[in-house]
Amino acid sequence: MAEQQPERGVDLDLDQSQFGCSVCLDLLKEPVTIPCGHSYCKNCIEDCWDQEAKTGQYSCPQCRETFSPRPLLKRSTMLAELVEKLKESSTQQPSPSLACAGPEDVVCDFCCGTRRNKATMSCLTCLASYCPAHLEPHHSVPVLKKHQLVSATVPLQGKMCEKHNKLMEVYCRTDKKCIYHLCVIDEHRSHNTVSSASERAEQQKQLIESQKKVQQRFQERKQELKELLQALKDFKSCSRTAAESCDGIFNELIGSMRRRRSLTKQLINAQQETAAARAEELQLQLEEEISKMKMKRRDAELEQLSHTDDHIHFIQTFQSLSTSCESPDLPPVSVFYPRRSAFKPVTDCVSKLRDDIESLLEDMWPRIFSTVSNIDVVPPAPKTREEFLRYCRPLTLDQNSVSPYLEHVAFTEPLYPGLGLKDARGGHYAELIKFW
After folding, report:
1. Fold assignment, 12-95
2. Radius of gyration of the chain from Cα atoms?
3. Which residues fall in a coiled-coil region (predicted)?
4. What is the pLDDT of residues 354-378, one digit of tens each?
């Protein structure tokens, strides 16, 4: 009798990963084995096959082997027992972190049910897209490791040839489109075709050149923006300084005018005070003379004397009265009565000064306005033909996307010099330029 072999332990980690359902990514529940040899949860494989019932072809979610009619499913007793032992002897490992597919995401082709995960990689050999969980066999199975994996950026259907339903591997430079290699035998027989890898390398060079130009243009724009901001900052500083200087000049001019106004008022008031002093002095003299001469009494006596009939009395009395009526100490008084327009020449002079200043301001203001308006940190928008020609650049058209009604010719018409294009149907250029 053969010696009894000792019972070997089970690698729980290995069993844990191999006894999982590739559809629900969990340990098998009611495990069943389909004809190709792969095992799934009974509910998971039935849900997948329910979705394929309309086609009449039932496939394995892993190897894609098809079966017709639909295989009958029976519970795998051995797998069920092994799964139960795994649950009892070890802690179930957590499933990989997965994300549900959004409207713009590529969906995993192996996820079944309503909740389908986002695919991260596509296999160009299997022609299927995988989420991280279903992609695991491509990292562990030796045969699958040889498959070509790419990032799942777009659905694989967009990379398939509609005619042959195969992955496009060739690029037609004549028609500028990707094709399947069998398409070269048919409609692309005489066309310039290269492999997609070669065309990618060529366009990669163009992409690098474009990136360099974009980066160079970007740096130029950044430098221009920096210079513009610095120029604007300097412009604001200069404008603020100019405004402060002009404000100071106008304040000096206003202060000078105010001083001249004050001086003019002082001169008029001084003249008024001088005239008032003279009039007051004359008033005192007249009052003193009236008091001493007692003119009213003398006038009455003279009036009475003028009516006397005694000639000797008249002569003697008149001599004494005439002597007392005049004061030898006081000179004769001549009073000047000024007119209301005595100071009109002064106001006329001030009015002329005002008119001269306003005339000077009217003459100088257009010059000031023009000088200020011509200062600008940003050039104004072109309005005339000469201004537009400053931004003239040679016109070039892409021969690959130009209209089929255009052809290259030697063109020297003065209206559009150097354009080098004409309408193959003889049309006029004006409409063509409007279209551009």
Report:
1. Herpes Virus-1 (3.30.40)
2. 58
3. 208-235, 260-303
4. 888 888 888 888 888 888 777 766 6
